[in-house]
Amino acid sequence: MPQPTEESSGERPQRPPSPEPQPTFQLDPTTWVHTYSDALYSYAMAKLRDSDAAEEAVQETFVAALKNRAQFRQEGTEGAWLMGILKRKVFDHLRRLARRETNFDGDEATLDRFFDQRGHWKPEFAKQSAFSLDSLELAEFRDIFQKCVGHLPKTQASAFVMREVEQKNSDEVCQTLSISVNNLWVLMHRARLRLAACIRQHWGMGDH
Amino acid sequence: MRNCQEMTKLVSDSFERRLTLSERLEMRFHMLMCRLCHQFLRNSRTLAKRMGEVVSQVPLPLEDDIRDSDHAASTPVARHLSGPPMPAEAKQRLLRRVMNAVNGRGDLP
């Protein structure tokens, strides 16, 4: 068997190539968990807004990564690799939710909260004085917005954040959630109604 | 003619697609007549505008950030509209499950 040539009169002698191809580095799952769990969980929470679902997605990501570690060779890019797996898990979850939630029969309550049977604004809204979201300071607005997005049905929240915060185009959002564009518009309508009302309500609770 | 419920849908749609001429006229007319629908329009606009402010102030934690994985969790970039770090108990459960998977007792039901 040919020995490796040590031309560089190495300070570090090189190991002879082993007969079996070995992974180029040793995996250390514990280190992985410590290094990446916060970042992965944070991403999952931002997308799912559900701690159980986020935890599950992160767990599944690590388990899937371990299962497929033979396919992974390039040291130093574990983060991106894990993130890729997590993204698939997260979007699968969002799609499952969307399939359930865009069956809008269960969400008639949204519109009933605002409109009477003839489709007119309910009297409690008519009595309200003018309210403008402009009057909130940015930091305050951000806090309240976060809270209110968390109160939306999950798929409304996902659709709204992707469209208005991440500024993705409709096609991309529809594809991600596997919904039709009409579904998306319905979601956006309900999200806008609920967000405006929720922000107003929280604003009213602060001392202004 | 649309009632207010239908009109708010049209208002919302106007952020998603180009309305037809007759839709635009009907909307403009309704806005003149109806304070609450007009307020919904203004608030929807403000919501869209303020999302822009929020995003330009603090960049979103985009997928790529994690490539710089040592920083992803600690930089202020990851703060806005990103989630919280993983709670300690959840981390314990994660570690347990990972160790089980490593030891081959992994994904058994």
Give the overall shape of chain A. Answer: elongated
* CA-based gyration radius of chain A: 25 Å
Q: What's the pLDDT, averaged over the residues of chain A? A: 80
Low-confidence stretches of chain B: 56-80
Question: What does this entry look like structurally?
Answer:
The complex is a heterodimer of chains A (208) and B (109). Chain A is mainly alpha-helical and 208 residues long. Chain A has helices spanning 29-48, 51-67, 78-101, 108-114, 123-127, 138-151, 154-165, 170-177, 181-205. In chain A, helix 1 packs parallel to helix 3 (78-101), helix 6 (138-151) crosses helix 9 (181-205) and helix 7 (154-165) crosses helix 9 (181-205). The radius of gyration of chain A is 25 Å and the shape is elongated. Residues 4-11 and 21-25 of chain A have low confidence and may be disordered. Chain B is built from 5 helices and no strands. Chain B has helices spanning 4-13, 21-33, 35-57, 69-72, 88-102. In chain B, helix 1 (4-13) packs parallel to helix 3 and helix 2 (21-33) crosses helix 3. Chain B starts with a helix and ends in a 7-residue tail after the last helix. The chains are: A mainly alpha (208), B mainly alpha (109). At the A-B interface, helix 1, helix 2, helix 3, helix 6 and helix 7 of A face helix 1, helix 3, helix 4 and helix 5 of B.
Key features of this structure:
heterodimer; A: 208 residues; mainly alpha; 9 helices; elongated; B: 109 residues; 0% strand
Break the fold down into its secondary structure elements and pairings.
The complex is a heterodimer of chains A (208) and B (109).
Chain A: H1 29-48, H2 51-67, H3 78-101, H4 108-114, H5 123-127, H6 138-151, H7 154-165, H8 170-177, H9 181-205
Helix pairs in contact in A: 1-2, 1-3, 2-3, 6-9, 7-9
Chain B: H1 4-13, H2 21-33, H3 35-57, H4 69-72, H5 88-102
Helix pairs in contact in B: 1-3, 2-3
